[in-house]
Amino acid sequence: xxxxxxxxxxxxxxxxxxxxxxxxxxxxxxxxxxxxxxxxxxxxxxxxxxxxxxxxxxxxxxxxxxxxxxxxxxxxxxxxxxxxxxxxxxxxxxxxxxxxxxxxxxxxxxxxxxxxxxxxxxxxxxxxxxxxxxxxxxxxxxxxxxxxxxxxxxxxxxxxxxxxxxxxxxxxxxxxxxxxxxxxxxxxxxxxxxxxxxxxxxxxxxxxxxxxxxxxxxxxxxxxxxxxxxxxxxxxxxxxxxxxxxxxxxxxxxxxxxxxxxxxxxxxxxxxxxxxxxxxxxxxxxxxxxxxxxxxxxxxxxxxxxxxxxxxxxxxxxxxxxxxxxxx
Length: 328
What we know:
Elements: H1 16-20, H2 30-33, H3 55-130, H4 139-149, H5 159-172, E1 173-179, E2 182-183, H6 185-198, E3 200-212, E4 217-227, H7 230-236, H8 255-260, E5 264-276, E6 281-289, H9 292-296, H10 302-308
Parallel strand pairs: 1-6
Antiparallel strand pairs: 1-2, 3-4, 4-5, 5-6
Helix pairs in contact: 5-6
């Protein structure tokens, strides 16, 4: 049987001679055939092939940490500066507020003091209208008018007050009238001024009058309330301070002074009026007030009370001793 063979048209180019002349290529190893997990990663340069795989992340973390530390320091510094600024602004605002309040309080004190003076002047004017020197003077009417005039002492600096009070004394009393060591209407008026300067909240109450039979003497029984202020201690009891001058030289007050400060005491007393029927005027007065008894009621010993009066400018009978600084 005849054999038929079929060949492709290009069989000559696929002959053994052609194929045998091709140099075979090596198969690539597996490490070059490993597929890339992330095709977006950039290829490493040959020069970086020696770098360890974890070096880059470690350096990045250190750099970020260092940058964060610097940023934190700057932020903390800014926060501290802001707090300091706010604190300083708050301090300045508070100081301004306190200054405004202080000025406001000073203005209020001045207004209150002015109103007090106006009230005193109005009271004095009312007193001058209500207290008239009796046309038909008697020892009873004079004594009653006397205590109405000085029921709050003489605490008004107005010249009108002094003028009216002096006129009353000159009209109802002899020019030579005496009250202990005091002589004359002006001396009596000055004693009232000194009494009102030494003590505050003065209130003299006339309890009752009693005529001594067979004589021209009228006895007035009184109750006098006064307050021991800081000024009282400084002016009347300066020896109770360690400097001996009422604290004007920076001394310290004794416990006795602290005990007396702001005490409101009530003194029982009497005033004797000696009347001259011929002239219709008072020729003599005897004023007594018991300052010792109310001080004995305060906590302390007799030695403490004795020390209070040791160099005081007032006696236990409430006789005043003028001080050179109070003469003006």
